[in-house]
Amino acid sequence: MRPRAVISCKARGGARVRTPAGLGGPACEAVAKVRPGALYSRRALTGAPKAGTLAEVSALAITRSRCCILLAIVAGAFLLSGCLSAREQAKLAEFPRNRVFQPESIGELPRGKDHGFGEMNRSGAQSLCLLMLAPDAMLKKRYHAEHDLTVFVVSGSAIVQVEETRYSVNPGAAVFLPRMTAYAVMPHESEKGFTAIMVFSPAFDEKDTILED
Q1: What's the CATH class of domain 103-211?
Q2: Which backbone phi and psi does 126 adopt, to 5 degrees?
Q3: What angle do CA 204, 106, 125 make, to 5 degrees?
Q4: Among positive and negative, which fits the CA dihedral 107, 113, 114, 119?
Q5: Global model pTM greater than 0.70
Q6: What percent of the chain has pLDDT over 90?
Q7: pLDDT in tens, 56-73
């Protein structure tokens, strides 16, 4: 005769396994006075119609419970996001790192390179880029069809050509370049070269750079 499993919240002996009654009620203890590996009724332990070992039944119950908890967490997150203001949601989001820029943190161009350009940080609406030019280099004339650009001079001096007009710029100067505005940068000859911060809005996309002859 197949050994029987007895559902009881007060175990007095035998193998003991905690499992939710009917996958939703209070947890009870299954007491089985049987040898290890014996078969038990899943209907009796978890409400499922098939039979399996006590370990299988317990694993099934635990897995289902974890799925229910996960669904509850996801549902709670959706409800919470609907109750928070835009500012509160932004505070919970991951902001860009390194939001403070210090000019003294800029290194030098690698030996053998006459220019350098890289993105330092970005958000969904803008990006912060670093431009470095050697004294004998230049940024060829170009424009951006879908980006507004502001250039802040950090060190060195240069001639910035905006369309057909040329401006001499020094540290502290800012050059605003709306989209579809052509520009070029030609450093004055010096030992340090030219360094500037370029702020693109929206965030920089290399495909939106169009060179002009």
Answers
A1: mainly beta
A2: -160, 165
A3: 20
A4: negative
A5: no
A6: 38
A7: 656 666 677 777 777 777
